[in-house]
Amino acid sequence: MVKTFPGDIAKDFDKLYESKEGYDTIIIAGEEPNVEEIYAHSLILRTRSSYFRSALSDEWVKKTNDGYLVLKKPNISAIIIKIILKFLYCEMVDLDNEEDETILDLLAAADELLIQNLIDYIQEYLIEYSSDFIEQVPIKMLHLISHHEKFNELKETCLETICETPNLLFDSDQFLSLEEDALKLILECDNLEMKECVIWKHLIRWGNAQRKTLESSMMDEDPKDEDIKNKGIDILEKILHELIKLIRFHQMDRKEFMDEVWPFRDLLPDKLIENVLRYYLEGADTLYNIFPIRWGNFEIDSDNLVGGYNPLDWEGDNEWKSTADSFLFLLDPNNIKNATISRVIQDGIDCAIGCDNVHGPSFGEGPDLHVSNNSNTWKFIAKSYSKIGISGLHAISDYEVFQVSRIKN
Question: Which of 9, 32, 34, 364 is the most exposed place for a label (fewest CB within 10 A)?
Fold first, then answer.
């Protein structure tokens, strides 16, 4: 029988990291005035990270006269480098005791340094606590997902959370510092649960903040140019040019458009104004072909049947029940062949069925399918089951619970 002692190895490597004994690598982390030299062992770094395997190769770095390898990482702070080295040496990381911004910086650095298992763990952590992070550091969170294409699952979770509770972002003190690419991600969402005229007002507020910053910069470059402020509307139009295309004007009523948009009509292309006015005057539906519908603001009647099968029971108070045999379904009575079945995923088995004596049926930790007490609102957030094809909050006309019993002969 083979006996392993992984804990002892981790402790020994932790001691090696702390003592720095026999180090041959110096990592210069951070920018002035927060530059720090950090000492490490190239053999461990090369073994644990493909990035360091290349970065510490003879082709990339030369040894000093003292025989040390020196690697400069000005874009990664010393705090982050130390956390990463601790992970590489002994696979230890404690996110619960780190600041929110530090965790986001750690994920970006782990991506740059190609440490996949650390990337996966941090993403899982951020997804689990996505609402907290978006509430505390919404801008940094959005900038992270807009700059890193690999974080698709985190991106979906982040956007879904913001679309369901958009005030977390739009009412934040940091909203005006949001980068254009990140704001574009939000405006492209079809399930953003905010009135279109309110979205428009926030866009104008954001644009004016960028305009003032740009005007100030232009004045610093050319203090004698007194005509800069007279160019305000032109500057604002350039700032908002690509973003205006994402506003669903057809989802505003005529009064909202005239009160909120018309004063800024110089920002809109003439053809767009013509189409919008024709839409209001003629009641035509041509704009639906120009802009996609933002479903988060629509109430569309449906005859769909949504439900779930619980092979256990509903007895219990505020507890989860484990099963791999439950499932959800989505059924269109007019097209039964396209019915959708959503089964429990492997990681969701322990929270497949939720029992609570003050709520209606509940499936999954998302919750994947849940109805509150004394409410006609169902909530769908895929987590414990595969995606069923609907998400968010939905009003229902009625629901029933049936018990399936075996007939005894």
Answer: 32
